[in-house]
Amino acid sequence: xxxxxxxLMVFLPLIAAFLPVFMKDGSKSWALVVLTGVSELRMSLMLxxxxxxGASASLDWFAGFGVFFQTNSLGNIMCAAxxxxxxxxxxxxANTIKQDNSKRFYxxxxxxxxxxMGVFLSRDLSTMFVFFEIMAYSLYVLIxxxxxxEAEKAGKSYxxxxxxxxxxxxxxxxxxxxxxxxxxILQLKEACAYAENQTAVFAGAFMTFIGFASVAGIFPFHGxxxxxxxxxxxxxxxxxxxxxxxxxxxxxxxxxxxxxAHSGRWALILLVLSELTIxxxxxxxxxxxxxxxxxAFLSVSRSGLAxxxxxxxxxxxxxxxxxxxRNANTVFGGTVCVVISRLMAKTVLxxxxxxxxxxxxxxxxxxxxxxxxxxxxxxxxFVTAALALTGIPAFSGYIGNTLLINGMGEYISAAGESAxxxxxxxALLIICTAVTAACLAKLYVCLFxxxxxxxxxxxxxxxxxxxVKFMLGLLCAxxxxxxxxxxxxxxxxxxxxxxxxxxxxxGQTAYFGFEALKYAVIAVAAGAVIYxxxxxxxxxxxxxxxxNPYNDSLTIDNKVYSPLIFGFLPFAGALFARVLxxxxxxxxxxxxxxxxxxxxxxxxxxNGKPVSEADLARRSSKVSVTGSLAYSLMLFGLGLVIILIxxxxxxxxx
Length: 654
Description:
This protein has 24 helices and 4 strands. It is mainly α. The strands form 2 sheets. It has a two-stranded antiparallel sheet with strand order 1-2. A two-stranded antiparallel ribbon has the order 3-4. Helix 4 packs parallel to helix 10. Residues 320-325 and 453-457 have low confidence and may be disordered.
C-alpha cells in the first residue's frame, strides 16, 4: 500500500497541474486545488493514524536516478497541514484569480503544492532537492502573476535567490554525500557524526542550509519576502507564509537534528542567526507603515523563532546527558507547536489583510484606517489570530512559547557558567514577543478602530467569500481549542513528533502553572508599554498619521544582493566574454601570421566592427537583460559549470 500511497500523494497535484491547460475556463481550476487538497488530507491522515513512521516507497526509473519516499512523524504532520492550506488557498483563489493567465497560475500553483509534498515525504536529501526546486521555480510564476512592475521586480528578486541558493544547495548536497557517504535522512545522524572529514561535513551542511534558509526567511536570506507579500495574490501570500516557509524550516530541522546533531558549533551559529532574524523581523514589523510589509516581517520573526527552538533542541541534545532527552524533546515540541500555530494564525491574518488591501486599493496604513469597522467577523478572526501569534494564554501560540521557555529554563539551570548568555537569549525571546504584541495592536487599531484614511477607492466592508469565512472560522476555533485543551491537541502532536527525535516524549508540561503564566504576563505588559510609549507617541502622529521609519533602499537586499547579482555579475560575465572574444581574435591573428601570411588581415581586426543603425537602436532600447529568463538560465549555467569543476576536482582529483 505504501508503494502506491506515497508516490500518489506527491504526483497527484503534479499530474493535475497539466489539466488547467485543457480547460475552457481556466478560472474554474480552483476546484482542482480544493479537490486534490481534500484527497491528500485524507491520505495524510492515513499516514498518521494507520501507518508506522519509516514506511518507504521508491520510483527507481524517475529522472534517470530515481526518487525515494519515506514517512516520518514530522513530515506526516506537515503533509496534513499543507493539505488543509491547499483547500483554503483554492477557495481564496476562486474570487481572486480571474480568467487572464489563470491556466498558467493554477498549473504552477498545483505544481508548487506537489513539490512541497515531495519535500515532506522525501527519504533522502537528493529527492528533497528535486521537489524543493519544483516548488521554488513554480513560485516565481505565482509571485509575478499580476505582471505589474512591482510584481515583476519581486519575482526577479525571488528568482535570483532561488537560482543561486539552489545551486549552492546542490553543491552542498554533493559535498555532504562525499563526506558522509549517504544522504538518507534517517541515516544522516550516525553517518555525519562518524565521518572522517568533519570540515567537509560542516561545509556541505552549511551550503545546503543556505538553500533552506532562503525560503524560510532566515537572516541574511530574507530580502525577497517583503516584496513577495506585497505584490502576490492573496492565495500565493498564504502559500509563501505557510507552505514555503514551513518547507525551509523542515529542511533546517533535518540538517540541525540529523546531519549536525553532534555539532555544538552548528547549533550556536543557528542560534545567533535565529536571534538576529527574530529581532530584525519584530523591529521592522513594528516600524513599517505598510500592512503587507508588517505581515511579511512578522513571518520572518516567526521563522526565526522556529530556528531558535531548533538550535536549543540541538544544544540540549548534546549536553547534560541526564536531562538531554527531556530538554531536547520539550524544546523540539515547542518548535513544532510554533510552526503549527504560526501556520494557522498567519493564514487568518493574511486572508484578512489581503481582503482589506483589496477593498481599500492600498496597503499603506494611512489608507487602511477603519476599513474593517463594519465587519465583525473579520475583526474577530483578526483578533483571534493576533492573540494566537503573540502567545496569549488560552490560544495556540501560548503552548509553543511555554514549551520553548520551559525547555530552555531546564537547560539554562544546568548550564552553569554559560547560563548568563543563555538567559540573555531567553530575555530576548520575551522582548520580541512583546514587540510582536505591540505591532499587532497597532495593526488592529488601524484597521478596526481608526478613522477612514485616504484610500484609493471607497469601501464599506471587507469582502471575503462565505466559503473562505467558513475555513477561517474553523482555523480560529482550532486556535482556541488548542490553547484551552493542550493535552488533547498539541500535546498529542508533540508526543507523535517526538519519534522524529528518536527518543521518548518529554512528558506533560504544566501549561497553566505559575512560571508559564508569569512569562506571558511579562510579555503582554512589556508589549503594552511599547505600544503606548513608542507606537502611540512616536510612530503615530495626529496630523500626519502613521510614520514610516523603515527605508526599503537601505535593506541588505538593495544594498548588497541586488548590486551584486544585477550589477557585478552581468559586468563580470560581459568582461569574461570580452576577454574570450579578444583571446580568440589574438589566436586567429597569430595563426594567420605564422601559417597564412598571404591572407590579408581584415580591417575590422584593427578597427573593430563598424557600428550600424541597428546596433545603436538595440543599445538605446530599454530591454532589461537581468529581468529575462535568459539571464536566469545564464546564472543556472554558471552554477552548472562551477558544479562540474567541483566534481572534476573532488571525484577525479585533477
